[in-house]
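User: Predict the structure for this protein chain, please.
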Amino acid sequence: MGPYQSAVIRIGFAGTWLFFLLREFPHRHELYGPDGPWSFALAERLIASNGAFSVLMWSDSTVWFEILYAVAVLASVGLLLGWRTRATSVLFMVGVLSLQNRSVFMGDGGDNVIHLMAVYLVLTRCAQVWSLDARRARLRGTASAGAAGPALWAVLGAVLAYGAVTGRFSTGWLVAFAAVWVVCGLWWLVDRHDPEGEGRATLDVLANLLHNAGMLVIMAEVCLIYATAGWYKIQGSRWQDGTALYYPLGLDYFTPWPGLSALLASSGTLVMLLSYGTVAVQVAFPFTVFNRRIKNALLALMMLEHVGIAVLLGLPFFSLAMIAADAVFLPTGFLVWLGARVAWRRRRAEPEPVPVVGPRGPAPQTPAGLKGAGAGAAVE
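Assistant: Here is the predicted structure, written as structure tokens:
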């Protein structure tokens, strides 16, 4: 269910977190590291009380922090490209949870969405299309080909064993990571030695069930976010009188373009329409998901709303996270068309092969539709 939607979610959240990590790279020590206002001792006390997960609590050394930050960046790149996605999705989740749980007061609503989706993505088969794994499976017949997979599995197994021996993991997280590690190893063995047998078919069925459950949870989460946001707004007096949008437009922190914000705030009618429209769309969306046309219309409005928030209020990462979450409801036909257009433009950008003139004339050329990864690339 939803291979294209899950791929868009994978690309969207991995890209958002990657851009955030790179944007805040000069400030990483103040945000999540040893120079932050939320000290290691305070974080240790909080995590001991709420049971949150963060491998940054394994050590307070700067070297360990730099290693984890680099792993988080690399895992985001790997998940964005769909490389060894079963492993990189787990590393992506570890990076997100570790950094955010280290300094819990540094995030906003967008960080909360990334936090949740990082966990849900581990459950999905989000690299069936638009990924290096899909390309490798198409060219070699299996996504498990190559030595990178076993090497990555062995390294992660050593880290897991170290954490288990030293008591770094709580019981629940230890069981969860061990289960993922064993299943990934079993999948590689079956995919490598019996790709067409009943064992692989059974694993596919179980993986599809888990994937479908994960996609259902993601869709429910998005509906819950908009429903609660809309109903809480209804209870606010500023949203009731249509003036709520006016106030953030006057705050320096939320005005990257002061002239544009002042122009919008000067129109009371426009402020009222945008305030009421925001509430109406958020409240209505969960009730329209089963009506394709209305759902698509509201989905476009919500994405435009988040683009406006990114530009007017200076919250680009929050908006990117919400747009990525909204993408779970994008129509499959639109995503297939979009993928075909991107593949077509990529093929047009590739240089044409130069004919090799031999004693018997030019060598035959590969048809344009079959260049690169094969004819299936036009669809994917």
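Confidence is low (pLDDT under 50) at residues 363-380.
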